[in-house]
Design goal:
It is built from nine helices and 20 strands. By secondary structure, it is an alpha/beta fold. The protein has two domains: 79 residues, Urease, subunit C, domain 1 (Roll), CATH 2.30.40; 288 residues, TIM Barrel (Alpha-Beta Barrel).
Length: 369
Amino acid sequence: MKKINDVLIVDPVKGTFVGDVVISNGKIEKVSPTNSGTYEHTLMPGFIDPHTHGCVGNDTMSLTEEKLTEWEHFLYSQGVTTFLPTTVSAKKEDMLRVSDMVGKYIHRKTQTSVYGVHYEGPYINVKKKGAQNPNVIRNASSEELKQVLSPVVKLVTMAPEIDGFYDALPILKKQGVVVSLGHMDANFKDMKRAFLHGVNRITHFPNAIKGLHHRELGGVGAGFYLDFHLEMIVDGVHLVPEFVNMVYKIKGADRIILVTDSIDAAGLKDGEYNLGGLKVKVENGKATLSDGTLAGSTLLFNRAVKNFKKFTNCSLQELAKVSSYNAARDLNIKNVARIEEGYKANIVILDKELNVITTYLNGEIVYEV
């Protein structure tokens, strides 16, 4: 049994209050508000990153157990207690290799922050490929999807206007896979049709999406107008602070999911790197292809949390929503992302500047300054 005393508890549902937390058998056993008005540290649900391609030299497309272990342990320093290694558009055999490797990794671990795999592509629009290899981008095939899906695949990014999208949806739904719209040239009509078919999520909004026009709302307008949940890369590069604040004001914290979209260069120095077979140059922390196209990010999750707070002046309760609670609900991850009795003790302790001090996974300290 462990007890954390006199911290500012931030729960995405109940709000903020000073109190004590008792942890037992990997779960939060008791949450007790106190009369104390003073605290040194803040306790929040552990962060969730559903969209990350790599970190500190490790990349989803070339993972080994050793590399994934290194990646996972580094992310504890960022307060991340759940993440989805994310692919880029790839051949079928490479998708299968990644999902097989991650599935075996999860099975062998008694506890892990790796929740599953996010396939970002290859079923996207080549016109909005971003830093994806055009040679492997293709339409959705029911036959192929049945082959590449497994219980470890939790999230798939697809473009709604490509051939095969609506044939694929029932298969994905049956497998319990969440579909996110992204890398698309879809107009508002395409977006609305997908939304009415139960797809309510957009990948790294508004990057690689058809822009807003007053006579055609496009994908960006649909994201604002319809009740979509929006991933956002809050690094100050993909989105200027004013845009982040505008989305927050229009959509509210309940519809925003922070992601890093980080590549293997995250946490490392500037230099040349590789993303899905494409050369990437990182200069002043900005990752681009040779033509200047943004190629993922070097964003670390703790920085994303700080940036969102700085750009929006949101409350800590709202910060807990965008950094963990919304992602957990979106991906149907049970018993996490709350500071509440009976929930897993996947939690992070931060100082008043929101720097990570301690990270707990299932009640065990996995990182400590």
